[in-house]
Amino acid sequence: MKPKxxxxxxxxxxxLSTLLAIPAWTLIVRVSGLPKFILPSPxxxxxxxxxxxNDGSLLYHTGITLSExxxxxxxxxxxxxxxxxxxxxxxxxxxxxxxxxxxxxxxPVIAIAPxxxxxxxxxxxxxxxxxxxxxFFPVLVNTIVGVRAVPTxxxxxxxxxxxxxxxxxxxxxxxxxxxxxxxxxxxxxTLSVIGAIVGELVDAEQGxxxxxxxxxxxxDTSMVFVAVFTLIALALSxxxxxxxxxxxxxxxQS
Amino acid sequence: xxxxxxxxxxxQDISFDVAQREFICFLGPSGSGxxxxxxxxxxxxxxxSGRVNFIRHQHPKIGMVFQQASLMPWRTVMDNIKLPLELxxxxxxxxxxxxxxxxxLVGLQGFEDSLPRDLSGGMxxxxxxxxxxxxxxxxxxxxxxxxxxxxxxxxxxxxxxxxIWQAKQKTVIMVTHSINESLFLADRVLVLxxxxxxxxxxxxxxxxxxxxxxxxxxxxxGKLAKKLRAAIE
Lengths: 254, 233
Known about the structure:
The complex is a heterodimer of chains A (about 250) and B (about 230). Chain A is mainly alpha-helical and about 250 residues long. Chain A has one domain (about 40-250): MetI-like fold. Chain A is built from ten helices and no strands. The longest helix of chain A is centred in the C-terminal third of the chain and has 38 residues, at about 165-200. Chain A is globular and about 75 Å long. Helices cover about 35% and strands about 15% of the residues of chain B. Chain B has eight helices and eight strands; from the N terminus they run βββαβααααβαβαββα. Chain B has a six-stranded mixed beta sheet with strand order 4-5-6-3-7-8, sandwiched between helices. The longest helix of chain B is centred in the last third of the chain and has 18 residues, at about 150-170. Chain B is globular and about 50 Å long. The two termini of chain B are about 25 Å apart. The model of chain B has no long low-confidence stretch (mean pLDDT about 85). Chains A and B meet through helix 7 and helix 8 of A and strand 4 and helix 3 of B.
């Protein structure tokens, strides 16, 4: 079989297996006879989804969580690439800062999330900071690796043409390290979703984490499912955006 | 000038002049500091003592061709070739026009939009040569540009380079460890000794131009080659 047909076949298989989960799930609900507040059926979840969509609550809370994720991701990535670039360029700076960086990685962000909420309030800011912190380290490491991997031969070529620092950054270092940078963004995007939910579960008045907890408290288990599926959709979309960026900018690699 | 790196003394008391539009070639065994010499000339390395004087400008425009073509893998042939013009702030339209001329000069028509990964070694090196010439440099530096090519491609590239040099009339300094290469291309061959490299011989190559492939089988070529071979030992 040609690789192309094989590829489209495997895609259909993926969709098929996802669709098969729905009757399987319905069957489990029927056979086990579990009450709705323990395991709602797909139909219950679908109806709850439509209700949340119609009264606007789902979109509102999704919007809040999405802005936390995106703002946190942007802040974390911006800060991490700047620090990472400086570290990649200066061994001395790396020696000075690396104990702090490694120590900071030893503290799980989840453990200090309550502190951040106490200090920064239960609004959007504390969640953005949690996202940024959780995203920071992997993006930092990828930036260092990416910039250090730029071939010295290409630096020589640029220097022989008397390129200035700015040109070397924009025309050499950025494009050369882009594959690794986007790899960092991919990890960061997934982690950022986790950061936002962790922050919201600690304490929040809005967002999907709040909705999740509300559903839990009110025995509205269908709502919990709706929130979880929305989160999955969010994470997949972010992942998709990064994949699109890779397709657009890394054509030369494939 | 001299150049050393830590305990390594790569070059010692090297002194030479190049005339405008002259093609000179440094010939030496590996470890004679040939590449160090070119890096000093290109300004990539400061000599430990001594200096490089250029008569017309103290900072001449330099085009350099490297052992490995050193192309940017994310740029197409066209975009790799016009890089020097981009760095000089040319507008896109002018840069592309000039790049198209260079592509024609090195015979890569039809490959404008190819990526380096799709090029053979010889083609990649042609791109390297086009890139080194596009900004009309005062001095062209060639660092064993054909060392990584197979023998047949290498000989074809000599012809190409010879033709391009005739067309462009640049001052060229090349380093190589191939006697045939240096004789076929250069006006003057300077033989370097083992590290620390010193100039052992400075020989005029009085072969007529334009040089064609069969010149390598003449007795005069053989005599010159023998002289160089003896000097390297």
